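Problem: given the chain below (217 residues), write out its structure.
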Amino acid sequence: GMRPSGLFVNISRSNARSWKHLLPRQKIIHNGIDVDFWRCPRLPKLHRTVWFGRILPDKGPHLAIEAARHAGMPIDLVGPVDDQHYFETEILPRFSSEDQFHGHLPHEALRRLISRAAVALVTPCWDEPFGLVVIQALPCGTQVAGFARGALPDLITPEVGRLVDPGDAVSLGRAAVDACRLSGRACRKLICRRYSLAHMIDRYEQLYERACFKAAE
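Solution.
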């Protein structure tokens, strides 16, 4: 038989569900973010979308470009090219003259692009365990439109974003337009409350305290 394991910490409800058959006892503690770094400078928003991440099919940037076109907004695409063939055949041909590929950017430049975008597009094509790009965009005061899969439904509330069926670029374009009307301040507030580094560290400290207390009993 299997040796009983200790307490397993998972980073999202959706990931915990997929591990439940192996790990019935799990505690969920979300990843935290440096909310002092990921912030919004006082600059006017541009009528553009942003997508950032590694450029590969699993992340679906080709669908983000299509969604931006349906939304009537150009896209800023940021990230290292992990799949050159995919980039040349699926990404470059979809670009309009207004769209821009920035390649890999240092965090400061990325933060500036995100915070000036009208909306961030998040297009996972598999069930990602956590959506780090979501909790980087929101504290910059930028709403999110994305596919409802993986951890995204756990992270995105109706105050900060819109979710659509996975793979549906037309609906994502409509959702992006809708998400632009949401409050950037609410986006930042949600992250500072639930996903700050301080909050994550508090949760882990409480967990270790309880575990040590139990072990000492």
